[in-house]
Amino acid sequence: xxxxxxxxxxxxxxxxxxxxxxxxxxxxxxxxxxxxxxxxxxxxxxxxxxxxxxxxxxxxxxxxxxxxxxxxxxxxxxxxxxxxxxxxxxxxxxxxxxxxxxxxxxxxxxxxxxxxxxxxxxxxxxxxxxxxxxxxxxxxxxxxxxxxxxxxxxxxxxxxxxxxxxxxxxxxxxxxxxxxxxxxxxxxxxxxxxxxxxxxxxxxxxxxxxxxxxxxxxxxxxxxxxxxxxxxxxxxxxxxxxxxxxxxxxxxxxxxxxxxxxxxxxxxxxxxxxxxxxxxxxxxxxxxxxxxxxxxxxxxxxxxxxxxxxxxxxxxxxxxxxxxxxxxxxxxxxxxxxxxxx
Length: 342
Prior knowledge:
alpha/beta; 342 residues; 9-stranded mixed β-sheet; Inosine-uridine Nucleoside N-ribohydrolase, Chain A; two-stranded antiparallel ribbon; 15 helices; 11 strands; disordered N terminus; globular
């Protein structure tokens, strides 16, 4: 357990130094694991590190109990080694909220670091902070329940990458903690909602759905050897003898696994959901995507409806043309990731 108490100290220690000197202070929340639940989280993390505008103040690793078994910190340490940066990170609460107002303080101490890190970064930042959420909203809901005034004052924009744009909320991220999702979505925070799916069916695309896809090999061919090694380590089974940091800082892991690397991964389709939110958080406007002022309501059964509202601070992802959206997202992903690690 020693390294996890060290992680707690990292989250609550005196200095947030060595971070990216971008112009947008950001907290990033992710259900990132190694081995992964879904490899899209590794792509999103690389995007976070690749966007020069983002000053990454903290990374929250969702579902603390699972983090002890399959630490997402592995990928963070790899990207810190590739980019020669340090980013504070912490693991989150281990159990679902028991009520909409649950603060999570009853959970074990080893799972408190993420909520404490969120509140600390907000408290110490001289300017409001942008938050990008993928995965569960548990730690953000608990932070809001502990210090709502701080959250209202210091959250510049909260990007929620969860849920279905309309209809029943059965999407995976929502189901990680339904009470936390509803708490945040019904709060008074300045939310930009990027629903995973457009409707009340899985894998539905439409004008308010963030889901898009690409073939992995079309991206991997443009990446530096170090970043190829990062993705190879994420996607392929690795012997315990392969050190994760050395794998991306030595001559490179990918060339040593050339056959498996190409035959098992290059032709795979990769589903993505959070690229548009990261680009918008960085101030990168895309003609293929817009964010429409809208409010949302949930009925007693949890089904959502959207309503345009020019007076609200809330926004919803809008995709006028699905094909153009996919092309634009892939072009930007390729553009930024091709520079990382060179």
